[in-house]
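Late entry, 4'-deoxy-4'-aminopyridoxal-5'-phosphate complex.
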Amino acid sequence: MSAFTPEEIQALRSRFPILGRTVHGKPLVYLDNAATSQMPNSVIEAVREFDRTKHANVHRGVHQLSQEATDVHEGSRDRLAKFLNARRREEIVLTRGCTESINLVANTWGRQNLRSKDVVLVSQIEHHANIVPWQLIGNQTGSTVVPIPVLDDTSLDQDAFLKLLEGAAGPVKLLAIQHVSNAFGTIHPVVEMIRLARARGIATLVDGAQSVPHFAVDVQALDCDFLVFSGHKMHAPTGTGVLYGKFEVLDALGPWQGGGDMIDKVSFSGTTFHEVPYRFEAGTPNFTAAAGFTAALDFLEEVGMEKIHDRDTELVAYAHQELSTVPGLKILGTHLPKAGVVSFVLDGIHPYDAGMFLDQMGIAVRTGHHCAQPAMERFGVPGTIRASFAMFTTETEIDTLVEGVRRVNKILGGR
Ligand code: PMP
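Prediction complete; structure with ligand written out below:
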């Protein structure tokens, strides 16, 4: 039985106004949800309503508008803490996005804890956002970034991981690992990997950019020190993000960016800092978007995270089955389970060329290296064509993609 009836999927689709538009005269087939998801009416309306009636700076004014805006902004923190099953609301730091969250950890925890020759373990198919901040901080601390190799099916090589944990490349201080690969959709066994790391006193960061939008993520069950993700990939407005950190871990960290709101007392003889999480939230936050973030979490929970995951699994299975009938097409990322992503290459056809042809047919897919150049290098390709799904994606849209790929094959590949 399908996770949703066809009527339920149509009802879901009708909540996303953008799905009603055309592209190059064709109905939009939006298969780029892993890059940015779309916003339902309830999120768009929550933002508009905030701007119409409550728009004022937070934490600062005693006036009514400021207090109402603060309630909305801080309400999104409460909602996020509940969504992630955090122990305390103070464990939620509101950021501009996943990238900023990782840079925050690198510049606070990393600066305080990494020493010369220490190793930060990442996966070989990590997003650049979870590689480069560790390299930058490594330039200052002398620590290095070491990749956990992946097997041909894009799963992580667990034997190699164990050897690395045991110090094969140097003393490991941090495991910074994606939960789900944005390039291939692979769901990694992070619970077990975190357990192995923690047993050796190694700190852990999970990049949840592609997992938190697709299935229930419980930070207490994960038992990671940090979890990071972005709002715009989970039907919330852009410019929103989260750094979850265990309270005692966050509390031991000094600040990163300085400015308003993150201080206790400022004087020219010295400054003291605010408590967690405000210590990490310098300057005016994106309070308008916070209203939308809360509405997005309400939407996701109303639809149901379990159903969203089940629907992902159905769509991935259908897309694998249909795409593998196309001559010259190779799927990268055959290891299951996966979350809402199918990545493939066409023999002799550059992904960019394919993407441009598909766009002419109204199909929005991502082509290129997906900010994971080492992953592309591992598989010897310049990039892939990536279709990524949401709960509103239909089998008919996947059929349109497959038909489009067949046409690309004929025009560009002569097949
Ligand atoms: N990590 C992963 C796995 C991602 O997919 C992305 C976005 N593609 C990021 C990090 C960075 O997210 P953002 O650009 O929203 O900061």
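Residues 64-84 form the longest helix (21 residues). Will revisit in the morning.
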